[in-house]
Amino acid sequence: MYGLYKVQAGLEAEAGTAVAADHKWMANLLHPKVGDQQWIQPEEERGSLAGAFRAYFAQRMAELGSLVGDVTFEDLPIWLGMAIVGSVSPTQPDSAESPDTYLWTYAPSLTSGNTPDTYTIEWGDDVQVWESEYAFATDLEISGSLGEAWKISMPIVGRQHSTASFTGALSDRTVESVLTNISKLYMDDAGGSIGTTQIESAFRDFSWKMGEHFAPFFTAEGNKYFTMFSEKKFGLGSPTLDITLVVDATTKTLITTKYAAGTVQLVRIEGTGTSIEDAYTRYVYLDGAYLITGVDEIAEANGESVVTLHLAGQYDSTYAKLFEIAVMNKVDALPS
């Protein structure tokens, strides 16, 4: 019964070695493609008008589809570990006075390889359950629109589907969505400090796309599924960031001065949530260094002039990063 469909998972200690699920993926939707086999019917000449006489499948891969839904402070570290860099441990800004506050920081190394966190995913309903091991993300998109929570779209692949049973007795978790209306945008020139200058009363929406990163890699090793992952170089202009702004004196300067001069911008999109304890509040910082590469035509939104800026990732030597995503929450270890 479709109403009883669910997804749950477990973090693998060794990539590809299946583990039992220990938490639910309940706040985001994931609907895998059931088939994982690549069937081939070879062309043969048998003196017959029939086109095919036999078939074989040469390769298999679990196409788990795109995980979609709200960005939550509690789940985002799971997705960032699968898509950007794994084996991240949180730090504590003040372990003595604020023992329940944890900071997760995800910045891919640009001079050495990165390894994703991999999961064994259990999915299905009360009729049939499948299990897919060595699951990781191949891309990542985060966006925000007024009147909504931030949204995520993250394609996931795994080795193969096997029939299974759900690991039982897993509880629902408490999660909190990141809301666009209480988010903020900061833009500063490269060489300065990120998160210094807020673009006030102008920020309306954004769309951030990392681009392809990790990928399944097949070798002849006695199995039809992939044996390892590969890591792709971030493409030219990746990640990309589109931002829609009200046209005012400040945003006009971004166009007439920063865009015109090719001045790299340090950009922070900040999503905040409820209090954790003391002075600490849940937040997500979506940070990066970007060149403004394009400016759309001026459009209208409820009587105001708005414009969309197109930004492309560009390394800044002072910032010494391409991008970074930081999450503050109450989660002390993965899975959340």
Q: What are the salient characteristics of this protein?
A:
single chain, 336 residues, mainly beta, 18-stranded antiparallel beta sheet, two-stranded antiparallel sheet, 2 helices, 6% helix, globular
Task: Estimate the global geometry from the Cα principal axes.
Answer: globular
Q: Tell me the Rg in angstroms.
A: 23 Å
Number of helices: 2
Q: Termini, distance in Å?
A: 28 Å
Major sheet attributes: 18 strands, antiparallel
The secondary-structure class comes to: mainly beta
Number of strands: 22
Descriptive overview:
The chain is mainly β and 336 residues long. It is 6% helix and 42% strand. The protein is built from two helices and 22 strands. The strands form three sheets. It has an 18-stranded antiparallel β-sheet that branches. The chain has a two-stranded antiparallel ribbon with strand order 4-5.
Secondary structure: elements and pairs:
Elements: E1 6-11, E2 23-24, E3 28-29, E4 37-40, E5 56-60, E6 62-70, H1 76-83, E7 102-106, E8 119-124, E9 129-137, E10 141-145, E11 151-158, E12 161-163, E13 183-189, E14 203-209, E15 214-217, E16 228-231, E17 240-246, H2 249-261, E18 265-277, E19 280-295, E20 299-301, E21 304-313, E22 323-329
Antiparallel strand pairs: 1-2, 1-8, 3-6, 4-5, 6-11, 7-22, 8-9, 9-11, 9-12, 10-11, 10-14, 13-18, 14-17, 15-16, 17-21, 18-19, 19-21, 19-22, 20-21
Short description:
The protein is mainly beta. Helices cover 6% and strands 42% of the residues.
